[in-house]
Design the sequence.
């Protein structure tokens, strides 16, 4: 706090110090103004008398601007100030919570992008889908790694967490070890693998599938049905995860900034077998 306050008080006291000689006022007014800038209003009134309205108005305006500036700077830096007071153990764990949130955000963004890729009609488009699936698989592995590191750090620094009263971290740990969340992530990996297999087979045999060569259609049907089964399972698991997270946030609202955003859009059947 007090990012610009002392500079403001110093400038006011210098002004009063210079003005006090001109107005033949005691110089100690400068010290009074420095420690209590608000008293400058009284100083202006007794020295300027009838001409005090404009200086007082200017001072009030500047004071308001200083107050706004203080609030703005503090709101931007308060997290850093608070973060600096934490022990190194706590800082290290909080870094992992940030990594978790970033990795989930990245995964969510890629999920939405994948959902928007409908009407795949050429091998070139399929390559675009495969590239996106690859990015999602990498993001999922990164998230899984972040979760494991976070849980390991929680075990390592458990005593420090308790000593510093960061009990909410145990609740966050509870979320990431909840069975429905673990299952959602494992099923998502299966979904992406199935979607990748279906996409590769379709790309590599695009003409044969388009011309409905029986053996290729049969293989395509097998890939497609497996994809649909895993997709349906994934959607059911995701509904359970959303329900759990909603209830979890209701009872632990302080953890909402650390939890992944629940996507409103769900996976859709991007691939549809020709009748």
Sequence:
């Amino acid at each position: 706090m007090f990012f610009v306050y002392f500079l403001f008080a110093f400038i006011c006291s210098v002004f009063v110090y210079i003005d006090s000689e001109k107005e033949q006022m005691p110089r100690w007014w400068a010290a009074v103004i420095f420690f209590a800038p608000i008293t400058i209003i009284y100083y202006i009134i007794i020295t300027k008398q009838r001409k005090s309205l404009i200086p007082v108005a200017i001072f009030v305006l500047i004071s308001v601007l200083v107050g706004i500036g203080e609030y703005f700077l503090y709101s931007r830096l308060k997290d850093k100030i608070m973060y600096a007071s934490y022990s190194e153990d706590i800082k290290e764990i909080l870094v992992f919570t940030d990594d978790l949130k970033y990795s989930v955000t990245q995964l969510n963004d890629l999920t939405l992008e994948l959902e928007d890729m409908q009407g795949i009609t050429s091998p070139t488009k399929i390559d675009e889908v495969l590239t996106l699936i690859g990015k999602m698989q990498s993001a999922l592995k990164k998230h899984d790694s972040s979760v494991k590191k976070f849980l390991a750090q929680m075990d390592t620094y458990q005593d420090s967490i308790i000593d510093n009263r960061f009990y909410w971290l145990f609740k966050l740990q509870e979320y990431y070890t909840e069975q429905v969340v673990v299952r959602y992530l494992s099923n998502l990996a299966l979904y992406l693998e199935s979607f990748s297999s279906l996409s590769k087979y379709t790309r590599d045999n695009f003409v044969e599938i388009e011309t409905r060569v029986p053996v290729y259609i049969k293989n395509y049907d097998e890939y497609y049905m497996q994809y649909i089964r895993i997709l349906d399972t994934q959607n059911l698991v995701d509904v359970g995860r959303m329900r759990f997270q909603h209830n979890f946030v209701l009872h632990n609202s302080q953890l909402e900034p650390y939890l992944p955003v629940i996507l409103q859009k769900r996976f859709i059947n991007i691939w549809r077998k020709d009748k």
Q: What stands out?
A: The chain has a mean pLDDT of 78. Residues 214-251 form the longest helix (38 residues). The domain at 87-258 is CATH 1.20.120 (Four Helix Bundle (Hemerythrin (Met), subunit A)). The chain has eleven helices and no strands.
